[in-house]
Structure formats: C-alpha cells, structure tokens
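Please check the following.

. . .
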Amino acid sequence: MGSQPLRIIGALNVRESLPSKLKAARMLTGMSTRSVAAKLGRRFPISHATVANYESGRSVPPMDILAALACLYDRPINWFLERGRTLTGVRYRNLKSRVRITDLHRFEADVQRWIDAYVTLEARLKKPLKAIITNFQIPRGSGADDLARLVRRTLLKLKENEPVPSVVEVLERFGIRVMENPTDLRIDGLAAKYEKEYVVVLNPGVSDDRSRLNGAHELAHVLLGDCDKGENESKEAEQSAFEFGSLLLLPNSQLKEAFQGQSMVRLVRFKERFGISLAAMVYRAEKLAFITKSTAKALWIEFARRGWRTQEPGNVRPDRATRFEQLVDEVLANGKMSLKEVADLAGVRPEAIRQRLNFAMGIHGDYNPEDEGANIVKFPD
C-alpha cells in the first residue's frame, strides 16, 4: 500500500502547525536535515531538501513518513497533528552573541513544547490563567521609570518602602504564563508572544535575586510592547527593561537610603528585604549619582576580590514559577490523568515530568524511572 497524504482532521488543516513542529522536534535532537534524511533513507529514499520542505510547509509528509519522523524524534505522532500556537517576538534576558543561533533555536523549541503542554493542561482542567490586572493603559510619553512607579503604586498598591513579594505572581496577575526551563546556556530568561497572549520563561539556575530581576525585566518587554514588534532587540529596549525591572523591585528613595552610611551590612540588608542584587544596586546608584564613580569602581574591585561578582552575600527568598507543575501534580494525585498522558501533552518521556515535579519541590537526585508514582504525594481523604 502506497504512502497516504495527511488528511484534514475536523476543522484542522495540519499544514497550519505541522511544519513548525517538525522543525522544532528535529532541532531538539541536534540532528541536521541531512542526518534525518540519512537515517530515514534506510526505509524512505528522501533527500535533505525534502525534509527541509516538510519544515517550511512547501510539502506535507505522507503518514508513514510522519510516523517514521515521530519515532526518530521520540515524539507521539498525535503531537504533530494537534493544532499548536507558536512563539513570536522573542526577547532574551541575555546577550545573543554569547549563544549560538542553533542553541537558541533548540532552547526556543524546548520552551515551545512545555508552553503547549501548559496551555493544553489548563484546557483539560478548565483552569485557564486569568488576568487580574486588565485594561492596563500606559500614559503617552511614559518612560520605563514612570511605568515602574505606575505598576508599584497604582496596580500593586505598594508604598515606597514595601518590597514586591513575588515577581512571578505579578506576571501572572497580568495574565502572563511563567515557566522555568533549566539550561546551561547563558540565557537568563525570555519573553514572547503566544498567539494573543504572552509567556515568560526563567532559568532557575541563576541566583534568586537575579531571577527576580529577570522576571521584572521580561515584564517590561511585555508591557512596553517589545514582543509585538518585528524588529530585532535593541540596546535601548534592553536598557529600558532593566531600568523598569530594577525600579520595580527597589524604588529610588530606598536605593538612596541603602547607600547612606557606606555600610556593606546595610546594603546586604536592603538586598534581602527587596530581593535585588548588590550589583544592580551599585550600577543604578552610580547612574543616579547616589555614589561617585570612584566609589562604584572601588566597590566593583572589592566585589571581584571577594568573589562576589559570581556569588554575592545575603539570602533572597526563592521566587518560583511552578503553576504548571502544581496543575500536573493535581491531575496525577486525583487520578484525572496518568503520567504518560501528561508526558504525551509535551511530547516527552514520563521521566521528564517527574524531573519537573521534583525540581519544583526542590528535590534533586536520582529516582526509579519504573516507579510511576515515585513523587506523587496523595493527601488523605
């Protein structure tokens, strides 16, 4: 029996989402189109150009070839056939020049599948993330500092000396889905548009104070409309996002007070209270002339001498993004879905779901991959 072309499933034309999923799945494996063609060539004599055409939407793979690709990419075939939304307007919290473009694409593909799973799980449970802050309008001519004050005072109802309890919760109040995606790449986080909504992804491998600033930084990209623009990132947009984020966490009046008396103990106290790094405080204090350039230089030298450029003193409470994992834990504990069913939503193995749950609870280490209920804690009736 010959190869059969893909059919239209209900109202879904698979051409709408299949190409991007094929490319994303391949890039996560690290294989080139030539490698894929070579591996499939044992059963299907196709060229690397044909694989590229599948990924660009110029042609559609027959069902048997799609099944072979799903097996090669270790994905359930249904994942390729489901309608999917794509990330656009991606804005990174780090310099792209430090990360290879292929690694960026693989990271984005990994983020895409977890966001897809998040939204699908919400739909299954009928628990969508609802924005509490709606109809938010930015006054014409407002800068990053004006916007930060508006969010703090008007929307969050915070006084100057009150810290932001959770940046993740602020993002979610704006209806922005937040997820953690561990990576060894020099990526702190990203913000992107997801059809008509927005997502923020944070790297939990960075320090807690840095993670909070990353989240606030990405909120700025969303509010300032950077994710809606087609052009590349600019230094001006990054600077505005940093100014918004740092001012949201620590108002200027409190920053000035932190440097009174020239006490490092005092600075660390403010760091712990407001959840912002010493480095960000010094940078802004110099820019606002709260300290002289010579004082800032002396502090940077002292930070380097003590190893504080990589690991600062002071403890900041973790500000974790775990709503997705909480939903997963709920459906597993209540028996609404199996571990494999949840894994299929993201096109991953069940072990990857266990890892996310364990990491969300701060559990690190080995586990038995054959024990499906290893980290599912059921509450007594």
